[in-house]
Amino acid sequence: MTLELQRFYEDYWPYEMCKGLMEKCDQRACQERYEIVRSLITTKMKDGESITTHLQRMKRYVDFLLKLNVKFDEELAIDIVLHSLSPCYDQFEMTYHLRKLEVTLSKLQGLLRTTENGLKGEAIESNPPPTVVPIMAIG
Fold first, then answer.
1. Crossing angle of the two packed helices 105-126 and 90-99, in degrees rounded to 10
2. By the 8 A CB rule, do 86 and 45 touch?
3. Cα gap 8→4, rounded to integer Å
4. Which of these, 86, 97, 94, lies nearest to 51 by C-alpha position?
5. Radius of gyration of the chain (CA)
6. CA dihedral 67, 109, 34, 43 (to 10 degrees)
7. How far is Cα 77 from Cα 73, in angstroms, rounded to an integer?
8. What is the pLDDT of residues 98-112, one digit of tens each?
9. Which of the residues 35, 42, 122, 129 has the least number of beta carbons within 10 Å of its own beta carbon?
10. Dihedral sign for Cα atoms in the order 72, 75, 78, 79
11. Any idea of the CA torsion for 101, 111, 54, 100, to the nearest 10 degrees?
12. Can you count the helices (H) and strands (E) in the chain?
């Protein structure tokens, strides 16, 4: 306990002191929960960011919420992750919803990694290397 808190609670009975400290902790936890939920919901995948990096960031937010005893089901977590993806994953998201896949969060991560590898392959195929045009030197 900090010196400031000790001075504040020096004239309190133990029960009152515990009750006051619990209220302070609850207020802090409520604020933390609000900030983390806001970050989780507003997080969007950055251009050029790998799906692994993005999913790790999302998982950190979920882990923070679990430490604060916030419970939400896996279906909601999947919806939040799908909402956070960049537009290049729109086809994946549409296919996911049309097939009504029932997957776990870890299975979704595997599917997204596979999709990312496919997207990289498409980018390579759709962007052929520029052809080299011979330049004639006049000398």
1. 140
2. yes
3. 6
4. 86
5. 25
6. 150
7. 7
8. 888 788 888 888 889
9. 129
10. negative
11. -10
12. 6, 0
